[in-house]
Specification:
The complex is a heterodimer. By secondary structure, chain A is an all-alpha fold. Chain A is about 70% helix and about 0% strand. In chain A, helix 1 packs antiparallel against helix 2. The longest helix of chain A has 21 residues, at about 5-25. Chain A is flat. Chain B is an alpha/beta fold. Chain B has 15 helices and 14 strands. Chain B has a 6-stranded antiparallel sheet, with helices on one face. In chain B, helix 7 (about 190-220) runs antiparallel to helix 12, helix 10 (about 270-305) packs antiparallel against helix 11 (about 320-410) and helix 12 (about 410-490) crosses helix 13. The longest helix of chain B is centred in the middle third of the chain and has 91 residues, at about 320-410. Classes of the chains: A mainly alpha, B alpha/beta. The interface of A and B includes residues 1, 48, 49 and 50 of A.
Chain lengths: ~60, ~600
Amino acid sequence: MQKNAADSLFSEIFCQKVKEMGEGEGLSSEEQERIIKVFRQAMANSYMDEHQIYRKLSSGGGQ
Amino acid sequence: MKIRQLKLKNVGCLADRTVDFSDLTMIYGENRSGKSTLVYAIFFALFGKHLNSSLRRQDLCRIGEKNASFDLILEEKGEPFRVRRFTDRLPRIYRKEGEEWTAEGGNAAEILQKLIPPAPETAALTSFFRESELIYFLQEVPRYGKTLMQSFIGIDRVLILRSVFKKAYTRAREYRKGVLNAAPGQKPDPLQTELIRRQLELAETDLKKRDSDYERLLQPASDQQLRYRMQQEQYKEKAAELDKLQKKQTASLPLLEKELKEKESIITDAQTLSHSLEEMLRHTGALSQEKRRIKARLQKLAALEEQGRCPLCEHVLEKERIKELLTEGEKEVAAVSARQKETDEKLRTVLDRKKAVTDAREDAEKLRRQIQESADLEKKIWELRQQMDGLAAEIREKAPDYGEKEEKTSESYRQKLEAARKSLQDEIVQHKVRLTRNEELLRRIRDNEKHRAEAERNVLICKTAYQAMDAAIRELGGRLMEEVRQSVRNWSAHFSFLHNFDIEISGNELLPIIQASGYTYKLNQMSKSERIFLYLMLKLAVGDALGHPGIFVLDDPADGLDQKRKQTLAYLLREVARKRQVIVTSNDREFADLFADAGCLRL
């Protein structure tokens, strides 16, 4: 039995893109990790909306 | 994972049926015998959903029944487990311990997700071959607006995710815009602030001094000071009294005295006047007596004239003589009356003069009282002036010691001091308000700058997340396609009649390119059998690329194939069965016979 390869591949590509773009934009490794963590949460929970994602992504907890 | 047994109850036309499966199982049945129902039942037993997304789970129930049950025995790496699903209840999972099935605790849905990880949509795409799907699977215009490629990668979920990240990015920008809009319009001038601060300090210093003066003012005065203050008060009182007395003093004393003298001169004649009055009264009395005497003689004469004789001697009297006497007597009466009238005139004059004297006496008395009062007033005024002079002399004497101090304890000074203090307090309040306002503005500016920096950072993070996702989605298509192409190459060895089969990527869309006998086909040029084999190969290739549950279920794949193609298909399915468990249904007797050596079941 195989895992959903598309999800794994998508996660892998996304992480890679975050690292590349994060370096380019001057994001810290902590911020890059935060983006990846939020992405994984969003992948696991399809009910997450933009408010939750924004709040989790924003450094100050968001508004 | 392999399916070993499926027990069905009240499922479609299968009221109560148990089906055992091998690695390659052929299920043969006539039309309407329940082949497709069995395929749906396998999918539902594995994933709890209807394979046909347009149908509900209740549609699986036999007509007239409210629920259906699916009892599936699976084998994963040699370990059997059992899944019981119902159309109206939650699933249950069992593990085999010895000969007994023991129910698993915990959330059955989560356990099943781990045991059977592919999403139902992915499994439907990669492991279930349906003729009904074939109709649109290779259409040039994708169904529901999705390309084939998008169907492969489950793009819906990914696109929704990208949309949500984009909205989060929009929200971050909106928040930043809100922060920028909330920035205070003007910055306080630092010089102005410093000026206000200094003004405040000056006002506070001044107020401190005024407060100190005020406190001193409130302190009790010394005895000497009290005496000085009392003398001042006395002086003021006496001055007021003097003023009052001076107002009372209407006429001057010499004038009154002169007037009194005049009145007294009138009174001086009173004695003389009294004597005159007595004399005149006596004279008046005498005249009256004289008049009465004459009148009595005249009466006697009149009687004698009437009788004509003397009453004593009876001598006859001469009438002429009597008449002469009467005339004389009347003349005497007239003379007496004239004299009496003259006397009365004089008496009246004297009486008038006496009344004038009486009035003068009263006036004199009144004047004397006035003179006395005026003299008293003057005396009082003089005394007051004397006292005031004394007090003034003492006040002047003490003024150098207490005057200034007293001036500072005066009511006017206190009022002045209080007014100054209030003004300073107001000024301080105003300065403090302005300072607080400026400080508040500065704090807001600092906060806003901090929030703006945070908002900028959040925008950058959200933008990076969104752009990374967008780029990942774009790259995902290509990467998946590469994997699919590799799988296609692996499987194409089994499809020898399809020369140089390949797929082409165009705008993230997968287009099959088929070359057979040196001729490149397009979809609309393909025969049904070619479409079936292409569909089969793509399913297998995509399954290898995207993941599959280890089984491959085909619902009547041989429909419309000629005998040769049926044999090819049977051969291919045997090849597939080396890698995956294959369950195939058919209503074609000849095709079913090709699997005689494998497990063959008749419905």
